[in-house]
Amino acid sequence: MQSEQLRLGASGDLVLLLSNTLQRLGLLTSPSSTFDGEVESAVKAFQQNRGLTVTGIVDEQTSIVLEEAHWKLGDRTLLLTPQRFMRGDDVAQLQSRLIELGFNCGRVDGIFGILTHKAVEEFQKSAGITVDGRCGASTVMAMLRLMKVVSGGAPAQLREQIAREGKGPALAGKVIVLDPSSETSDPMITFDIAQRLEGRLIALGVSVFMTRNQSAEPTDQERIDKANGCAADLVISLTIDRYKNDRAHGVATYYYGADAHGVHSVVGERFANLVQREITARTDLLNCRTHAKTWDLLRRTKAPTVQIGLGYSTHPGDMKRLGDPEFRETLVESLMIAIQRLYLSAENDAKTGTLKISDLRRAGIRK
Domains (ranges, CATH) in the chain? Predict the structure, then answer.
């Protein structure tokens, strides 16, 4: 929508365009060219609904998602554009309908990628219309007619869960990507935790890929490409949050979920809950809970992905804990147990905070 940030007190044509969009979405009663309290509240409601960080400020990410929310299925022809995939609510609506009709387009992420293109082609074949992978008026009409009599395709969420269960409980042979964020006041903390975790995973036969080395600062796109390029079973991103003052503290875990589209990553949510419970059971970090978000790293990475905020760089207590090597070891053990519990069947699971590495060895799951 625009490159500059819009916030309380701004005015002009960009604010008017913003308020018009918010009105169309039912979040604002009337448009305004002034960014007042009502507009700010509407922006916050939009961010909350779309799994964005709630700030009331229209930054670049919020602007992109606002543009996506503008589109409804049928407004434009949807097609595969390899240079830059089409994104929008209309794509998410198309994906939801394809899944309901039994066509596999992957997860509902609002991105018209290769799987969605192939699913449209399969639908067109079954409907007896021109097969070109483009979703125009004729494809939308055929879909609407068919949905009146057919429904109930296998949900993408169940496919994701079945794929996880099919991998078995042993960690050997699995592929895990570790993403230690460099966007913190001390990037070596996340890198050290990732290295410790990497060593333990490799010892168990896991193929581990790191998105960066000690000095690299990859972009979000490079991290996503790295994760998608190695056919990962799981992606773990480690971050340290910050806040405008030192009051915020504690650990929070994030997974892909979009309330607006009624979808979420089943495996991502389960792993996020396991991580959160294990860390808070083994440490005194404040439990800031798990949250569904639509951040690109979570949304565009094909494998189940979680981002773990291990504390706040703006909180002296959190940083003191993270600076202690023994505390970091405790975090690593918490993550190891959470990873293993993700692949355990329900009957072999144990109470949070009680499962130990030695228990897994006795069960024949660990060396």
Answer: 13-69 (1.10.101.10), 89-153 (1.10.101.10), 162-362 (3.40.630.40)
